[in-house]
Design brief:
By secondary structure, this protein is α/β, with parallel strands linked by helices. It has a single domain (2-146), classed as Rossmann fold. 26% of the residues lie in helices and 26% in strands. An eight-stranded mixed β-sheet has the order 3-4-2-5-6-1-7-8, with helices on both faces. Helix 1 packs across helix 2 (38-49).
């Protein structure tokens, strides 16, 4: 399992979620986007629908009748009702239960400068678990670069 830490600087979480979701969906997988902020989930949904003029990234809020069919499911918990292999923690809050039972192949933690301390604690927590690969990404000159 991979755990990726993404330090947001230039692009907002909504734009980064859309970029990551597009890549995961292109690989034939599904995505769970987790945020405890209902407003942020709404903004992410809109960004997914408007990600590209020629295509949209279909998504829905968890708790609906068609959760299992959603390519991108937005939720406030790490319960992948859509069978997602990737989980994006969009609100910057680390959730250790994202690692439970190997339910995801990959977890992305998006955080801003103000969340750096919490991300460091999560980095240490992940490093103590066997079978986890961790990476750190940041934007440099508009591009995402793996730095660790």
């Amino acid at each position: 399992m991979k755990v990726d830490f993404w330090l947001l600087s230039r692009d907002p979480a909504e734009r980064v979620v859309a970029m990551i979701a597009e890549r995961v969906l292109a690989g034939g997988e599904r995505v769970l986007v987790v945020s405890g902020d209902e407003g942020q989930r709404s903004d992410i949904s809109q960004a997914l629908w408007e990600a590209k003029p020629e295509a949209f990234l279909a998504n829905g809020e968890a708790g609906g009748a068609h959760d299992a069919r959603q390519p991108v499911l937005l939720s406030d918990t790490c319960a992948p009702a859509n069978g997602a292999s990737a989980c994006i923690l969009a609100d910057g809050r680390w959730r250790a239960d994202s690692l439970d039972g190997g339910r995801f192949d990959r977890v992305f933690l998006l955080f801003g400068e103000e969340g750096r301390g919490d991300a460091r604690a999560a980095w240490r927590e992940v490093s103590e678990k066997d079978g986890l690969e961790r990476s750190f990404y940041e934007q440099r000159e508009g591009r995402w670069v793996k730095v660790a």
